[in-house]
Design brief:
heterodimer; A: 114 residues; 6-stranded mixed beta sheet; 12 strands; 54% strand; globular; B: 113 residues; 4-stranded antiparallel beta sheet; 0% helix
């Protein structure tokens, strides 16, 4: 069975601090996909990144970076120099190859204070 | 420009009164999904369509039905809403199964009174 664990329920930081959101996953599949989504107060889930199981390269996009480590089944997300607009709920998710079901973690509420 | 549009954004319905939520997409994606998200919880997949093929999750209550009359539109019908069905309902689309990102609408927040 697939499972995604986001152990941090809520994180509060002050603007300009760096923050890392943890994600640990479980799957028996050898091919799978990992995602991060942001859910601002408006409600829609905004896609941030997709990573397939064969690509362990870390990725950086502006202030966002992701660290994928298959050895520890983790796919962590770091925001550098956080801003108030980063305040949202962040979900890590997993899907199997050829499947349709996104299995979400419980989400981490990030609060960035000015 | 919104690519997945859900109407209405907020819906209030009476206990037991059928309600329909709608979703449209401009992406021409094959797959459309309905997720239920209760307060402070993760979204949970109810069902999805791959083109016209309907795929129900095993634990989705019979009270929930769906229709997809064409590529662009998908509807969620709740036949007899109960208080426990109050939630945010999220529609999403993706180009192919599994290995591409899903694009989500803004959701419809359903209140049952």
């Amino acid at each position: 069975a697939q499972k995604v664990t986001q152990a941090q329920t809520e994180i509060s930081v002050v603007e300009k601090e760096d923050v890392t959101l943890d994600c640990v996953y479980e799957t028996r599949d050898t091919t799978y996909y990992l995602f991060w989504y942001k859910q601002p107060p408006s409600g829609e889930l905004v896609f941030l990144i997709r990573r397939n199981s064969f690509d362990e390269q870390n990725e950086i996009s502006g202030r966002y970076s992701w660290n994928f480590q298959k050895s520890t089944s983790s796919f962590n997300f770091t925001i550098t120099a956080s801003q108030v607009v980063d305040s949202a709920v962040y979900f890590c998710a997993l899907s199997e190859a050829g499947g349709n079901k996104l299995v979400f973690g419980a989400g981490t509420i990030l609060r960035v204070k000015s | 420009d919104a690519m997945v549009i859900q109407n209405p954004r907020y819906q209030v319905t009476q206990f037991g009164k059928p309600v329909t939520l709608s979703c449209s997409q401009t992406l021409n994606h094959n797959v459309m999904y309905w997720y239920q998200q209760k307060s402070s919880q993760a979204p949970k997949l109810l069902f999805h369509y791959y083109d016209k093929d309907f795929n129900n999750e095993a634990d989705t209550p019979d009270n929930f039905q769906s229709r997809r009359p064409n590529t662009s539109f998908c509807f969620l019908d709740i036949r007899s809403p109960g208080l426990g069905d109050a939630a945010m309902y999220l529609c999403a689309t993706s180009g192919v199964r599994g290995n591409t990102e899903a694009f989500f609408g803004q959701g419809t927040r359903l209140t049952v009174v």
